[in-house]
Write a structure and sequence with these properties.
By secondary structure, this protein is of the alpha+beta class. It folds into 3 domains: about 80 residues, OB fold (Dihydrolipoamide Acetyltransferase, E2P) (Beta Barrel), CATH 2.40.50; about 40 residues, Dihydrolipoamide Transferase, CATH 4.10.320; about 200 residues, Chloramphenicol Acetyltransferase (2-Layer Sandwich). The chain has 8 helices and 19 strands. The N and C termini lie far apart (about 60 Å).
Length: about 425
């Protein structure tokens, strides 16, 4: 008998929520076969079985949050990982039972991501009929969506002719008529269950507003020099790095320097003490299909512009693919959120606890501005800061934002970019 326990998936992880059991009681489980899905602070992970055998008992139901080390289930028979099988007496050929062929479960026996399973359920796709194009024939998100689209586009078979009811002598034949389909009312309401991720977001956001004394201010920044450099460098950068050059690394670089100059903005309130951080771990808010997540780029103060661009792109890509590790959403000292690509002009973000401030970087747009008593067209952006008035005062918040503004408007990023 093997006890299945809640694993510790990272140094900062102390508990997890069972999202879904991938096996039912009585199912046979292979060693390292995905057994259940857990969520640890918005990072969803498939956990493989630690033993082969039969899942005889599930002790923790789906949707339950338990601490690391809690017993979750029991697997009987087979061998646990690392066990040495006991010696058994040799069996003659005559005595040996014929090996039963393994059940043919088609694509269902593959290791499938939670997203693939979710999409298959939403589109009523039989995964056994889907041809995988991923590595080793693995079924991907695109495979499921393409299969569903092809099925929808297929011509509909003609409806069968009405069935004739068998007749008896002297009885007139009659045709069986199907009852009319119920009419669908246009408009109305749709009830959408609150997802696990949405519950976590709601809890974190509400708790932040309850605990902090949030205040807010903003500055307008002339991004013309940055915009021109980005335009000149974007093709060479993409050829060298394999992804696009966005404004985010420039803003992040300017923010990091300002945080080192004004470390109180990079601090944390712990009880009756303020812990001032002289290193910078930047949280980058990433929007993905389930909501919002903030992976952390650690040691960001030691990175140049290209290093920041690589780190931000890597975290955002893996966040949207649900491939982050649990520890990668912890340990931030300051967060930047970027609603600009969605058209936002100015934002008032909620502080990512236990940090003391968060900066919103909105849409970069061409606007008329006054320069040297003349009207000119420049790339402009609003940078706004939500800050905890228990730790930061208005003067400090304004000084910090002014420093970020100065960095973006006056720095020679071309040398830092060095393409």
């Amino acid at each position: 008998m093997t006890s299945v326990k809640m694993p510790q998936l990272g140094e900062t992880v102390v508990e997890g929520t069972i999202l879904k059991w991938l096996k039912a009681e009585g199912d046979t489980v292979a060693l390292d076969e995905p057994l259940f899905e857990i969520s640890t602070d918005k990072v969803d992970t498939e956990v493989p079985s630690v033993a082969a055998g039969v899942l005889t008992k599930i002790l923790v139901p789906e949707g339950t949050t338990v601490g690391v080390g809690t017993e979750l289930a029991v697997i009987e028979g087979g061998e646990a990982a690392g066990e040495v099988p006991s010696e058994r007496p040799a069996m003659s050929v005559a005595e040996a039972p014929a090996a039963a062929p393994p059940p043919d479960r088609g694509k269902r026996s593959q290791i499938l991501s939670p997203l693939v399973r979710k999409l298959a359920a939403e589109h009523d796709v039989d995964l056994a009929l889907v041809v995988g194009t991923g590595t080793g024939g693995r079924i991907t998100k695109s495979d499921v969506l393409n299969h569903a689209a092809a099925r929808s586009a297929a011509p509909t078979a003609p409806a069968p002719s009405p069935a004739t009811v068998p007749t008896r002598a002297g009885v007139t034949p009659r045709t069986a008529v199907a009852p009319p389909a119920p009419a669908t009312e246009p408009g109305g309401e749709e009830v959408v269950p609150v997802s696990h991720i949405r519950k976590l977001i709601a809890e974190h956001m509400h708790a932040s507003l309850q605990v902090s004394a949030r205040a807010w201010n903003a500055v307008e920044v002339n991004m013309e020099n940055v915009a021109r450099l980005r335009e000149r460098s974007k093709d060479a950068f993409k050829e060298q790095e394999g992804f696009g050059l966005t404004y985010m690394p420039f803003v992040t670089r300017a923010v990091i320097e300002a945080l080192l100059e004004y470390p109180m903005v990079n601090s944390e309130l712990r009880g009756d003490q303020i812990v001032v951080k002289h290193h910078v771990n930047i949280g980058i808010a990433v929007s993905y299909e389930d909501g919002l997540i903030v992976p952390v780029l650690k040691g960001a103060d030691a990175m140049n512009l290209i290093g920041l661009a690589r780190g931000i792109n890597d975290l955002a890509t893996r966040a949207r693919a649900k491939k982050l590790l649990p520890d990668e959403v912890h340990g931030g000292t300051f967060t930047i959120t970027n609603p600009g690509p969605f058209g936002s002009l100015i934002s008032v973000p909620i502080i990512n606890q236990p940090e003391s401030a968060i900066l919103a970087f909105d849409s970069v747009e061409k606007r008329p501005v006054v320069i040297d008593d003349a009207i000119a067209i420049r790339h402009m952006v609003y940078l706004s800061l939500s800050w905890d008035h228990r730790v930061i005062d208005g003067a400090l918040a304004s000084q910090f934002l002014s420093r970020v503004k100065q960095n973006l408007e006056t720095w020679d990023f071309a040398e830092d970019l060095a393409l």
